[in-house]
Design goal:
Layout lengths: L2 H8 L3 H6 L2 H6 L1 H8 L4 H9 L4 H12 L26 H11 L3 H10 L1 H17 L7
């Protein structure tokens, strides 16, 4: 049985709980203890400190869960998704052209990107646009 299916049974009627095997109770007891520690940190800490049997801890959490009419919202914790920024990467031809014009190596280019990123990226974009628009470089 998967974790959130187990949690639904934990907070549902006692008939579903009685049908669960001890294996399912002990398998999910660690995560249930973590979830319940959000609202009941002292009790969860005592279960850990006393090294309570996982099935016994599950039965204890069932007694607590029986006071709720449904699965409480604090069980479902969410992680905020970070928006991935589009990172512009210049073509190798643009980089080679920039290095040749400025008579620098790749190490100096990395330093320029580190210390003066906006100007360097702007210059690389201009060079890339010019190389792309150059009629004489196009292959026919």
């Amino acid at each position: 049985m998967k974790l959130f299916d187990y949690i639904k049974v934990l907070f549902s009627s006692p008939t579903n709980w009685d049908k669960l095997k001890s294996y399912d109770k002990s398998k999910n007891s660690f995560m249930v203890n973590r979830f319940m520690a959000i609202k009941f940190p002292i009790q969860a800490n005592l279960f850990n400190a006393l090294r309570t049997d996982p099935v016994g801890a599950a039965e204890s959490w069932r007694m607590v869960a029986s006071k709720f009419k449904r699965v409480p919202g604090w069980i479902y914790t969410r992680v905020r998704k970070t928006k991935k920024e589009k990172v512009w990467e210049p073509s190798q031809e643009t980089i080679d052209f920039y290095l040749k014009i400025n008579e620098i190596g790749e190490r100096e280019l990395r330093e320029a990107l580190k210390f003066n990123r906006e100007t360097t990226v702007e210059t690389l974009k201009r060079i890339e646009k010019q190389l792309k628009d150059d009629v004489h470089r196009r292959k026919l």
